[in-house]
Amino acid sequence: MNLRNLSQEELIKKINMLEERIKRQDNEINVLSEQLNWYSQQIRLQQKKLFGSSSEKIVLPDQISLFDEIEIESTPIKAEPKLEEVTYKRKKKNNKRGIDISSLPAVTKIYDLENKNCPDCGEPLRKIGENIRKELVYHPAKYEVIEHVQYVYTCDRCEEDSLKSKIFKADMKASVIYKSFASPSLLSYIIDNKFNKALPLYRQEVMFNQIGLKLSRQTMANWMIKLHDEYFKRMTDYMHKTLLQSEYLHADETTNQVLNVPDQKPTTKSYMWVYKTGRSEDKQIVHFIYENTRGHEHAKKHLEGYHNILQTDGYQAYDKLDDIRHMGCWAHCRRKYLEALDGAPSDTDLKGTASYRLLHKINKLFTLEKKLKGKSYEEIKDTRQKEAKPIIDDFFKDVKECAKVAVEKTKLSQALTYSINQEENLRLYLEDGRIEISNNRAENSIRPFCVGRRNWLFSNTVKGAEASAAIYSLLETAKLNNLKPYDYFEYLLTALTEIDINDDKELEKIMPWSKSLPENIYLTKKS
């Protein structure tokens, strides 16, 4: 097209059209740049998840580790741990590591000379000392069959006299599962392996088969469901009722795939909801509840009648609950800024970014919390008001200024939005020393379930998922109360056949937080 032949009016119109096209192209370029930036961030974050450290500590370019995990975790041979029988408390004089064996049975083997006369002159030898070497010996698991024989009697005289014949039986302990050879010790062993040590039932089946016991995973799974139906459901219902009487709770959720859920595809995500009492509560409880969705109606049902402090990671389902003081999680807030730093291009000066500056302010709050360990809740509250409040005020002022100029759809903008939306909840811990700075307490209890989930991947049925939730509830509550999981379950499964499980007073005596449990099931020492 020859522009010289155009009139001034046509030329202006043409220029306007070109300007509109350039403006549209600029907008398209900006949108594509934002998309490219977003995808680049996602790629860097996925690489970090796959190959990077899971720690939330910030790692700057000049802090790169040069060693593999094996080199980091291993120690020189001279640092081999010693076997020590600890008989009294003392301050460590050196950095040598010792293993406390005082609670283990010991056998002494004596190595002595048969001939105690000198082979050269024939005179008797004189003992001048001893060389002692200790070994920690492992004995494989031992199984035995106990045959319970109950004698039954009748009276021949009564029968001859046409009186009603009576049957007399010796007292015999009832079996845990009706008409099953499963003992409390065997069931506790299976529970401890699967739910505490994350050993799936199919691996346990292999272990049993290797010692000649043909015990199938289906049988073991059925036992877990029967224990739930007979005992554990009643116990966890009572546990939840007790939990709702607390003044401070944590809550969290994690996915749990269940294959056979009515009217639901096998690939649909189900969830484990977890509730845990706060650190200030007398009765320490963790309760897992299986649900097939993450809908807010479940939170409403679980917490019906609860009107005190609830700490979460900011999931909106909890915001819809009435009369609850909702505390946020500073660890989740911090994680958002870490993701923004992890998603930054490799040539970025991290220390000069808003993400780093805001992250540094949050870290000051966590540093302060470390100094408050061991203090009374009143002292914690006073110190937070004096030292943490100015940091938080400055943090949110900075957040709101950054939000005005932040590029949309970036990790930083998401972190800023999360902070602003959660401000009221994140400030609540300033008002009460009992409240923790983060919801990590709930995450720590949910972690064993997540570790186990990596091994068995999914539950087959709803009943199986519910049984797993109940067993995890009892297991994690036992650990929270300093109990040895195997020993507690063996004690529990023995006691359950001797009490009225529908009597709350009887049930209270065997719950993990009970003060009347036997001393030998407590984990009193660290080895």
UniProtKB/TrEMBL annotation:
Domain Transposase IS66 central, residue spans = 179-466
PANTHER family, sorted: BLL1576 PROTEIN
Name the chain's protein: IS66 family transposase
Q: Which residues form the Transposase TnpC homeodomain domain?
A: 38-97
Residue span(s) of domain Transposase IS66 zinc-finger binding: 116-159
InterPro entries, sorted: IS66_C, Transposase-related, Transposase_IS66_central, Transposase_TnpC_homeodom, Znf_dom_IS66
Instruction: Name the coiled-coil region(s).
Output: 8-35
For this UniProt record, the keywords arranged alphabetically read as follows:
Coiled coil
Please report the stretch or stretches of sequence annotated as the Transposase IS66 C-terminal domain. 473-513
Origin species, per record, is Allocoprobacillus halotolerans
